[in-house]
Write a structure and sequence with these properties.
The chain has a domain at 7-174: Uridine Diphospho-n-acetylenolpyruvylglucosamine Reductase, domain 3 (2-Layer Sandwich). With 477 residues, it is of the alpha+beta class. The protein has helices at 7-24, 78-86, 103-109, 116-119, 148-153, 188-201, 245-248, 263-267, 286-289, 299-312, 314-321, 341-351, 369-373, 377-382, 415-426, 441-447, 450-460, 469-473; strands at 60-64, 69-73, 90-92, 126-132, 138-141, 163-173, 177-185, 203-204, 207-208, 211-218, 221-230, 257-262, 327-337, 357-362, 397-407, 430-431.
């Protein structure tokens, strides 16, 4: 056992501190995490109330290389998790792009990456969850036990049904390197068709595809990026310093451009520049980047800068000095059926002045935990998977990510975000709730669980100690 696998005794100590902190919160007060950092892009109400002490629940508890599983505390970041599992030649089945995302956060708030076309979403590799519910009880939820309703309702609940304390997850074995191919396409329809074909075949021109995502720069310049796991030795690129990963994708050739990364650098290829968002801080300007300390070329530092801006409205004040309007933040990840990708991207590029866009195909994992854990086929058929973020099993979707801002529309707060919400719903999609949302209550309930969510609240938080999902996601409580 290495230093990052800290064992059952240390985990038990952290769990006791968590329960003690719950009991210290006054009756009737809302229960929240005592957490200084967040990967949410929506402002939250300020509070001085005490929160849950999760200070010792941030490590990998153990790794079983033979079983290819890990026991992980809920507040463990993927940076810590990947560093630990890679020592055994293993990684989680889906590793979200930013190092500071926690495993518990990715499960309760969703996550995605370039293995999602074959492995689904992070919560689908969870075998069991130990959850602190709103009424202060610790329950173990599995797809085949008395808390299976919570197991399938927990993803996309954002801490409103409880907090994950421990998770047992599946891992997959990986070799040391990833061979990349960047394929240029010249229309959104070509992009859609090529992603759909590769996602289905898991192969391109006779070469296996283990990772699949892409970038849209303009309506006639987009790239499908393929990765193949390999143990073949050879030179590798480095995008953790002067070179910028997303710029390396671009080329004019008819044949794919090739590249190679270590598995670790591939998993964190987007973190160094927070995709392309570091340009907002000047970090991609060569004259500035030359003097930018390498330890600050990472998402956790950009989060601090965003926090300062949210606290003091720095960006809007600078705009005002230039005679420019305030900015409406448009930071979203949405999912639409893969055959609606071109329609959405064409509409977005024509209506919303934001580029580039990230695109990533996904399909729910097969076999599903329902099929594995259900006692009978009838029981499996009776349970709707992942009830707060319902996706159709067997169907490919594409996640489109866009992270920037547009000028505020006078008298219409959140106007651009609301327009995007309507378009996504029109195309049969959903959006993640980590950023601002503007849905009216009836539409929100129809999209994100409705009566099923209310039933879970009544069972696991009958005294309403936790905030409601609509309060958190839309009212930003």
């Amino acid at each position: 056992m290495n230093a990052s696998e800290y064992g059952d005794l240390a985990f038990d100590r952290g769990r006791r501190k968590l329960l003690e902190s719950y009991r210290s919160i006054p009756d009737g007060a809302n229960v929240r995490l005592a957490k200084k950092t967040s990967n949410l892009f929506r402002k939250r109400a300020e509070t001085s109330a005490p929160g849950l002490d999760v200070s010792e629940l941030h490590r990998v508890i153990s790794v079983d290389p033979h079983e290819q599983t890990a026991q992980v505390a809920g507040m463990c970041t993927y940076e810590e998790l990947v560093a630990t599992t890679l020592r055994h030649g293993l990684v989680p089945l889906v590793v979200p792009q930013l190092k500071t995302i926690t495993l518990g956060g990715a499960v309760t708030g969703l996550g995605i990456e370039s293995t999602s076309f074959r492995n689904g979403l992070p919560h689908e590799s969870v075998l069991e969850m130990e959850i602190l519910t709103g009424n202060g009880e610790l329950v173990v939820a599995r797809p085949d036990n008395e808390h299976r309703d919570l197991f399938f309702g927990f993803p996309n609940s954002y801490g409103t049904l409880g907090y994950s304390v421990r998770l047992k997850i599946k891992l997959e074995r990986v070799p040391p390197y990833v061979e990349l191919r960047h394929i240029r396409v010249h229309s959104t329809r070509e992009l859609q068709d090529l992603m759909a074909q590769i996602a289905e075949d898991r192969d391109y021109r006779g070469e296996r595809v283990d990772y699949l995502d892409g970038v849209v720069f303009t309506a006639d310049e987009a790239y499908v990026v393929l990765g193949r796991q390999t143990d073949e030795p050879g030179p590798v690129s480095d995008y953790t310093d002067a070179n910028i990963y997303y710029r390396s994708i671009q080329h004019d050739g008819a044949e794919p451009k090739r590249d190679r990364l270590t598995i670790s650098d591939y998993l964190w290829r987007w973190d160094t520049d927070w995709f392309w968002c570091s340009r907002a801080f000047g970090a991609q300007n060569p004259r500035i980047r030359r003097f930018w300390p390498a330890r600050y070329l990472r998402s956790s530092f950009y989060w601090k800068l965003i926090g300062y801006d949210q606290r003091w409205d720095i960006g809007d004040k600078l705009n005002a000095r230039k005679g420019l309007p305030p900015t409406e933040r448009v930071v979203q990840d949405i999912e639409v059926p893969i055959d609606a990708t071109a329609d959405f991207v064409d509409w977005f590029l024509a209506e919303i002045p934001i580029e580039p866009l990230w695109v990533c195909p996904l399909k729910l994992a097969e076999p599903s935990p329902i099929e594995v854990g259900a006692p009978t086929p009838e029981a499996a058929a009776a349970v709707r998977p992942w009830t707060l973020y319902p996706l159709e099993r067997g169907k490919f979707y594409v996640n489109v990510g866009f992270w920037s801002g547009v000028p505020v529309t006078p008298g219409k707060p959140g106007h651009t975000n609301r327009v995007i919400e309507r378009k996504v719903s029109e195309l049969g999609g959903h959006k993640s709730l980590y950023s601002e949302s503007f849905y009216p209550p009836e539409e929100f309930d129809a999209l994100y669980g409705g009566e099923t969510y209310d039933a879970l609240r009544r069972r696991y938080d009958p005294t309403r100690r936790l905030l409601d999902l609509y309060e958190k996601a839309v009212k930003r409580a």
